[in-house]
Write a structure and sequence with these properties.
single chain, 227 residues, alpha+beta, 4-stranded antiparallel beta sheet, 10 helices
């Protein structure tokens, strides 16, 4: 994956472009914004430059929408979001006050991020989506960690190379128990990433899954070469 620095923003943060390796069109490009949100080219692009423009266009549209004051996490926003959650999942208002329930945990996460935009909140949501997908949340529950303890622990954790490497090691362990599971899961994640990209949706979760699985596969292949 070819990675290019984008322009430096006023706060020193970077927009990062990644071109997906391809010898022929359609070309694909991903753009990661300073807050961690990721978008990709949502059209069939005949050139790499067109793919980059397509990715930048969808990222800009989402940034403008999500950075609008109405999309900041305020008390009113939290109240509406929690109400939507218990209507959607047929929960109760009592559940929203209990951080051990799913709706209660969602409310706790929103309250912990009061004042942030939805794009900034997306980073934290991606961390917990990955922890759930990776089986880490279940492992913590098995160790009798409360949901609130888990939320408090990971609320300030960045999604960095150390976290990715640890998750890749978890998948390498699974591969030793069930041969072929990484390739199977990688195919699923790549299909999810493509579907979401063409729909113009935010891509951080499916892209991180793909990258973690590719990291695990590369490590296994490297170990086999050295053996």
């Amino acid at each position: 994956m070819k990675i290019q620095r984008g322009c430096d923003l006023k706060n020193g943060a970077l927009v990062v472009y990644e071109s997906q390796p391809s010898a022929s069109p359609p070309y694909v490009c991903f753009v990661t914004l300073p807050g961690g949100s990721c978008f990709g080219s949502f059209q069939d692009c005949p050139t790499k430059a067109e793919a980059r423009r397509s990715a930048a266009k969808i990222a800009l549209m989402n940034s403008v929408f999500n950075e609008h004051p109405s999309r900041k996490i305020s008390d009113e926003f939290i109240e509406r979001a929690v109400a939507d959650a218990f209507h959607s999942f047929k929960g109760s208002r009592e559940e929203a006050e209990n951080p051990s329930t799913g709706i209660g945990a969602f409310k706790f996460m929103l309250q912990s991020n009061r004042g942030r935009t939805m794009l900034e909140f997306q980073e934290l949501m991606t961390v917990f989506q990955l922890l759930h997908w990776n089986g880490s949340l279940k492992a913590m529950r098995d160790r009798n960690c409360s949901r609130q303890e888990v939320l408090a622990h990971y609320s300030d954790r960045a999604l960095d190379d150390d976290m990715r490497s640890q998750m890749a090691l978890d998948w390498i362990s699974r591969e030793q128990e069930t041969a072929g599971i990484i390739v199977q899961e990688l195919e699923i994640s790549m299909n999810e990433l493509k579907t979401a990209r063409l729909a113009g949706r935010e891509l951080r979760f499916p892209k991180e899954k793909r990258d973690i699985l590719q990291l695990a596969l590369t490590q296994i292949q490297s170990d086999e070469t050295l053996a």
